[in-house]
């Protein structure tokens, strides 16, 4: 089995970080066809990650069911998938959940703090947040490495007891102990219940409900028909699945679905293209926002509504205290008018989030709103 660089973009044959080349074996026929990855355990060990993490990542990207049988070291993705395609997806997993974003070194450990996933680099000492927008982030939060280790030890002991009773040779036991020492972690209860990225109509509806872009989230409007709502759901689902889409790609998709220029598409956009790093991301997306957000109150309020959902429903612990910075970023980008900001901050609303959450958000935004009101009064005086 050939070894390749963990970072395949590095062509140096003396690059110290290696992993096995992914092997894919297609089994079954018709609706029962599936792709088995027989060396997933070895790959995961090289990356210092549980085998379930990259397996579930494949399911997220491909929209396929996955099965993780750690006891038998059998990892499956439903459907027929060739090794090169899976290897390319694995590159994306490595980029998002293994490499240090500061030094691009794979010597990182996953640390869970609150509702955030951090990658602690042993090479340069940096600690950077993982991509919290990706569906795998939810899985990792519910299945942190520490819990997986405890379960692995328990299951390993069960396996060892069974092997002792059945007279299995010592080599197998030694092999499993060595793998445990290497940091491999077994699947959690959620995975055993069949967690996956299902693409059925019901599953898509549930994911969009979690994203808060279902029809009931928008309120009434001039483009509020059922067919239109499905288009917004499709737009949100596409944004969630795409990896770093360009401004041109996003606009093209919105035009294709017929939602470009609609205020509801603005709310979906705000929730999907930003994450916990929204303060730094706004300047990079200013041109895109200016194309989506028309010069009217409805569109600009949709921007603030999307921010309320992003902060209140997804990154409250991280972003609540950064509300003044977020609003200042939108102000400096000239996306929202002064009067819209001030009107939005006058009282909490349950239009986008729970009323109590809205109250917290607008309280956190008070320093910016007071500054804006004073600046407006001075301008009028001049």
From TrEMBL:
GO terms for biological process: formation of cytoplasmic translation initiation complex. Residues 160-169 have a biased composition (Acidic residues). Keywords: GTP-binding, Initiation factor, Nucleotide-binding, Protein biosynthesis. Residues 225-382 form the W2 domain. One of its GO terms (molecular function) is GDP-dissociation inhibitor activity. Residues 147-169 are annotated as: Disordered. Transmembrane segments: none annotated. GO terms for cellular component: cytosol. It holds the Pfam family W2. Belongs to the eIF-2-beta/eIF-5 family. This is W2 domain-containing protein. It comes from Phycomyces blakesleeanus (strain ATCC 8743b / DSM 1359 / FGSC 10004 / NBRC 33097 / NRRL 1555).
């Amino acid at each position: 089995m050939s070894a390749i660089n963990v970072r395949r973009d590095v062509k140096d044959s003396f690059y110290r970080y290696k992993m096995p080349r992914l092997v894919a074996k297609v089994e079954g026929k018709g609706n029962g066809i599936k792709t088995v990855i027989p060396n997933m355990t070895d790959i995961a060990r090289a990356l210092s990650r549980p085998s379930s993490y990259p397996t579930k990542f494949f399911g997220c990207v491909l929209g396929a069911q996955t099965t993780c049988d750690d006891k038998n070291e059998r990892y499956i993705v439903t459907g027929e998938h060739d090794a090169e395609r899976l290897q390319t997806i694995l590159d994306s997993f490595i980029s998002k959940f293994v490499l240090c974003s500061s030094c691009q070194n794979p010597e990182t450990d996953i640390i869970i703090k609150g509702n955030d996933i951090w990658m602690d680099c042993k090479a340069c000492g940096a600690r950077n947040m993982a991509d919290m927008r990706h569906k795998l982030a939810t899985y990792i939060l519910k299945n942190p490495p520490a819990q997986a280790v405890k379960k692995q030890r328990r299951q390993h002991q069960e396996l060892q007891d069974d092997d002792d009773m059945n007279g299995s040779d010592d080599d197998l036991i030694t092999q499993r102990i060595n793998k445990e020492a290497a940091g491999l972690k077994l699947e959690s209860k959620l995975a055993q219940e069949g967690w996956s990225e299902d693409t059925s109509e019901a599953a898509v509806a549930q994911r969009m409900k979690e994203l808060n872009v279902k029809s009931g989230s928008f309120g009434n409007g001039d483009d509020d028909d059922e067919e239109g709502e499905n288009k917004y759901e499709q737009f949100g689902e596409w944004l969630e699945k795409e990896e770093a889409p360009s401004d041109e790609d996003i606009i093209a998709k919105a035009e294709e679905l017929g939602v470009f220029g609609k205020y509801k598409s603005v709310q979906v956009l705000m929730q999907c293209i930003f994450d916990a790093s929204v303060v730094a991301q706004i300047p990079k997306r200013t041109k895109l926002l200016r194309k989506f957000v028309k010069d009217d109150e409805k569109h600009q309020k949709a921007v603030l509504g999307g921010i309320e959902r992003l902060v209140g429903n997804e990154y409250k612990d991280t972003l609540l205290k950064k509300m003044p910075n977020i609003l200042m970023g939108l102000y400096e980008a000239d996306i929202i008018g002064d009067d819209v900001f001030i009107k939005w901050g006058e009282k909490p609303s349950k239009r986008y989030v729970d009323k109590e959450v809205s109250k917290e958000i607008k309280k956190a935004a008070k320093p910016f709103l007071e500054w804006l009101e004073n600046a407006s009064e001075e301008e009028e005086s001049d």
